[in-house]
Amino acid sequence: MNNFEFCNPVKVVFGKGSIARLSALIPEGSKVLMVYGGGSIKKNGIYEQVTDALKGFDVTEFPGIEANPHYETCMKAVEIVREKKIDFLLAVGGGSVIDATKFIAVSVGFEGDPWDILSKGGQIKSALPLGTVLTLAATGSEMNERSVISRVSTREKLNFASPLIFPKFSVLDPEVTYSLPARQVANGVVDSFIHVVEQYLTYPVNAKVQDAFSEGLMRVIHEEGLKVLDQPNDYDIRANLMWAATNALNVWIGQGVPQDWSSHRMGYSLTAQFGLDHAQTLAILLPGVMTYMFKEKQVKLARMGEVVFGITEGSEEERAHKTIAACEDFFRRMGLKTRLGECGITEKDLDALAAPVDKQGWKLGEHHNIDSKVAREIMALRL
Predict the structure, then answer these.
(1) How many CB atoms within 10 Å of residue 316?
(2) Could you confirm whether domain 11-176 is CATH 3.40.190.10?
(3) Which residues lie below 8 Å from residue 250, measured CB to CB, with a gap of 6+?
(4) Which residues form the Fe-containing alcohol dehydrogenase-like C-terminal domain (predicted)?
(5) pLDDT band at 198 (very low <50, low <70, confident <90, very high)
């Protein structure tokens, strides 16, 4: 196991009716900016629950955060925060709303162009405090220090991380996910599953605790994910998926182990240039990474196949190949595509899709050996 330092300061309030706890979680007298998306929270009762809980606070609303949050939209919120002297941010939504809120939090006091935080690793010196009310189990942003933002004008999608953007608290009520469209639920299942894979499927370093947690999370997400679309109002299924998604990316299982994340980084350009859902990009690219980097990942692939999919017959190599097929089958059973061609992407698009890898100076994968040339070859496997 590799050396590590670990701290996760997020307070989690989990369970039915937990939104009512908001008034006790936000500092008294706060001027709150309530950030949310396209208005679905006004149709499913979440908006009413939140606003009832915020009575007594000075609240300004900022709706309209996109499914892949836009830099341009976030900067409009920054102007409002400065104008109204907002001192607390509340994200009500899924990972996109939370990511946008994190970027708003660090942009308010940033000296210079806040896009430099993402494109140049600009130093973050301060951030407004923020909390979250989670409405979609997927990204883990409610309990981590990461954010991903897209810029429409340049067709870029980039990420940043800072310990200053850990939420002060996150409210997780599984019941609020009952009314989600099937597509969003399926995306969340696949996204959270692949978050675990990115931290687990590398090479062994004898990190037994992290591996055991990762294997348990993958098993739960796989088992419950296959049930949830048919049983959308089953509280236990929703609760297990919500908590699993949070733990899939709350920085715990990644401590002391090598990590990959190449599927995520390569997927950014598929979203930025073609508008594909984030989870859809992962469902396409992960099997390609598994196949291209087969020898490097064979040991963990075989182990994953055994504990997650019950694959026990054949040699280690055979079981590893079966695991790749089982992952692709899982994504398809959740309703996602697994080939670029199914999304209208052809070979002529691959150079532009792979170009951001070199432009950003990324060396992807656990061995840092994936440049734009390799990225293009991986994408070619998924046409």
Answers:
(1) 13
(2) no
(3) 8, 10, 140, 143, 144
(4) 186-357
(5) very high
